[in-house]
Amino acid sequence: MSLFQKIIYLIFLITISFEFENRKLTEIENLEIENIFDSMISSPSNPLNIILQTSNISDKEKLCPLCKKTIVEIRETIIKKYGYEGALKFFISLCNLGLDADVCESAIRGYGPTFFNSLSKLIINENKFCSTINLCPSSEKKINVDEYARNLLKSKPDKKKEKIQNKNTIKMLQLTDVHFDLYYKENASAYCTKLLCCRDPPTPHAKILSGKYGFPGKCDTNKNLFESFLDYSYNLKPDFIIWTGDNAPHDVWLGSQEHVYNSTIILKDMIDMKYKGEIPVYPILGNHEKYPNDEFGENESELLEKMADIYKSYLSDEAYETFKKYGYYTMMHKNTNLRIIALNCLYCDTFNFNLLVNQKGAKNQFKWLEETLLLAEKNNEYVYILDHIPLNANFYLTECAKRMIALLDRFDYIVRGYFGGHTHIDDINPVKNYFEPHNVININYVAPSFTPYPRVLPSFRLYLIDDETYLVKDYEQYRLNLTKANIEKVANWELSHYGSKIFNVSNLSEMTKMTQRKVDGEFIIKRFGDSEVGYSKVNNKNDIKEAQCSIDSVNFSDWMKCAHPTLDINYNHIFTLLNTMSGEWKEDDS
Ligand SMILES: [Zn+2]
Ligand SMILES: [Zn+2]
User: Fold this and answer.
1) Which CATH superfamily is domain 151-582 in?
2) What is the chain's alpha carbon radius of gyration, rounded to the nearest angstrom?
3) Terminal CA-to-CA distance of the chain, rounded, Å?
4) I need a surface site. Which of 280, 288, 351, 569 has the fewest CB within 10 A?
5) Nearest-ligand number for the alpha carbon of 176
6) Distance from Cα 388 to the centre of ligand 2, integer Å
7) How far apart are CA 546 and CA 563, in angstroms?
8) CA distance 107 to 93
9) CA of 61 to the centre of ligand 1 (A)
10) What's the CA-to-centroid distance between 449 and ligand 1, angstroms?
11) In this structure, which residues have their CB less than 5 angstroms from ion ligand 1?
12) How far is CA 194 from the centre of its chain?
């Protein structure tokens, strides 16, 4: 365990379980905290220092009592005495051991309040916390995921997917990550130091301003852009739409739940005005449908009821009732044997701190998913699964990913498509047999975002589907050159490429063969190059490695082992830590 990793662990150790008193520190108190910190770091017998010095994480005998002692000590000396502000200051000092001061300051101050609130409710004592991060033995009974997969796969039927019939084609449009910004302004500052720009009037020296259709930078979707898409896509005559989440803008520091509803209502109204209910639309929740983002708790009835009501006209009665309770649903695609299964990504969202000690929601969703797939199998149906976050993304918990792989393996011959977004990148990810990790069986399609944030071209996909087998034949990817559209004052959407051309296959159901071979750098550059979403280009060794690993890995933990085998300074280690803390599912959740 490196010093950096230990520091990250310690930040978590310290940020636990206390109701903070919210007040400003006096100058004297500030100095006192600095002194306490210095003495903790310099005294060789201090538990904090011993943990920092200990090289072997598996040395539990030594580390367990130290972990507990550290928490108690920090609770008594720092938090009780100095409150929330004191705790923040302490974490910042600790973080400064490993990272730049400004990064620590803004990261800990920015995410602090949500983070502390979530954690303070969850982890209430040192015994529980220290066993959760594997520094102390645990008395909790864990559910072994390999065993789950082994049992599940026992009943896997010996059936294969049919070949594409190549008769009629139906078209499915995927719209994802719109991030609609109600407050977007034309001729505003396109560059700013905040997380979202194109809102404030330009400074006198500002050279680059936001345009009529948006800006390919830290700016979200505006009304003109979305309307131009609706006009254009309507003429492509899609048979149905999957709308895979993230409707609210990236103004995370001043957003609200109300804001999320408003963005969703406006988008839905615009879609309905154009399509007039002529075709089915299947929406799902993204991690931005919750404010603060990702922090979906145990009781979210208000959010679920509100979102279910907004989407009501798209859902069957049964789907509406399920959505209202859990945020997921299933319904049949009218007059076909295609079943849509729409999942709630927030139950498996690594950044949802509520999941660190309680996976009840995820457990329920997977139980329901398994039952729904069994039902589909019994009824000879085909299935499309919609889930906002891709399986191998940093935001998707590895424990969930493993279960999903087990289910996709067991029901391989009926699952005809698996679609997501979230990364804002044009992508495909492999799904492999659970126990044969070289055997690709399906593809997790990851469409690029509609929003140009953080610097991509607005894009959407139109999948071409065999109407008998529901296998994906190909996809057409469309994009808008924003810079050109803003200059010409007209939005000329264009077909950017076919999926089959990028991957050099005659139809996409053959992709399973293609992704089995190791993909070389040149192929990745081609894939992420000019024919892609545009501005985001892969041009350094690290990006190429990460992209290669994304093709080779089925979950985030595998991806980290592949892309970052050493403990380099990389923000993805935070996700590794969250995965570790969340750990294996336990039999009884508190
Ligand atoms: Zn998004
Ligand atoms: Zn997202």
Assistant:
1) Metallo-dependent phosphatases (3.60.21.10)
2) 25
3) 30
4) 569
5) 1
6) 7
7) 5
8) 12
9) 43
10) 7
11) 177, 246
12) 22
| Contacts of residue 222, Cβ cutoff 8 Å, sequence gap at least 6 | 180, 181, 184, 186, 198, 213, 214
Task: Enumerate the domain spans of the chain.
Answer: 3-132, 151-582
Ligand 1: centre distance to CA 431 (Å): 22
Per-residue pLDDT of the chain (590 residues; tens, 9 = 90+): 444 455 555 555 444 333 333 345 667 766 776 676 676 666 666 555 555 555 454 555 667 787 777 777 766 666 666 766 777 777 777 767 656 676 667 666 666 665 665 555 444 567 776 776 667 777 778 899 999 999 999 999 999 888 888 789 999 999 999 999 999 999 999 988 777 899 988 888 878 899 999 999 899 999 999 999 999 999 999 999 999 999 999 887 677 899 999 999 999 999 999 999 999 999 999 999 998 888 898 889 999 999 999 999 999 999 999 999 999 999 999 999 999 999 999 999 998 888 876 789 999 999 999 999 999 999 999 999 999 999 999 999 999 999 999 999 999 999 999 999 999 888 888 899 999 988 889 999 999 999 999 888 899 999 999 999 999 999 999 999 999 999 999 999 999 888 888 777 888 888 777 665 444 545 555 555 544 444 444 556 677 778 778 877 889 989 888 888 875 656 677 788 778 777 788 887 64
Among the bound ligands, name the one nearest to the CA of residue 388.
Answer: 2
Alpha-helical segments (H) within 327-475: 360-378, 398-410
Looking at the CA of 395, name the nearest ligand.
2
Distance between Cα 573 and ligand 1 center (Å): 21
Spatial CA neighbour of 443 closest among 342, 514, 497, 367 = 514
d(CA 158, ligand 2 centre) in Å? 36
Closest ligand to residue 352's CA = 2
Ligand found nearest the CA of 350: 2
**CA of 389 relative to ligand 1 center, distance in Å:** 9
Residues pairing with 180 in the sheet: 221
